[in-house]
Amino acid sequence: MKKIPKTELQVMKFIWEQENIRVASVDITKFMSENYNWSKGTTSKTLIRLVEKEFLKSEKEGRQTFYYTLVDGDEYLKFETKEFFSFMHNNSLSSMVSALDDSKDISEEDIKALEDWIKSR
């Protein structure tokens, strides 16, 4: 699996969040326009790149194009996380935890979940 740029990941995250097996290009274009101010052309080019990279499969049905995911969202998340952990923290959990230490975004609930995870290992 290959890492994809943030722009392509934004599209993939939207598609992964959908409950449908297939997602219409119209829906993707509308979402990207409303949330990121993308043009139809930008969205179309991004979808074409994702098909070329085999993250998506496209199918024409009349005048409409539908997209199907070929890469599972959870699998990609694991891939990205492992790559980040390896590259940024040299596979050191203590390095990653200490980097998070100053973060105000970590709740007591998050800390408890981490403690429980460590104990279960």
UniProtKB/TrEMBL annotation:
GO terms for biological process: negative regulation of DNA-templated transcription. GO terms for molecular function: DNA binding. It comes from the Bacteria. InterPro entries: BlaI_family, WH-like_DNA-bd_sf, WH_DNA-bd_sf. Keywords: DNA-binding, Transcription, Transcription regulation. Belongs to the BlaI transcriptional regulatory family. This is BlaI/MecI/CopY family transcriptional regulator. It comes from Romboutsia weinsteinii.
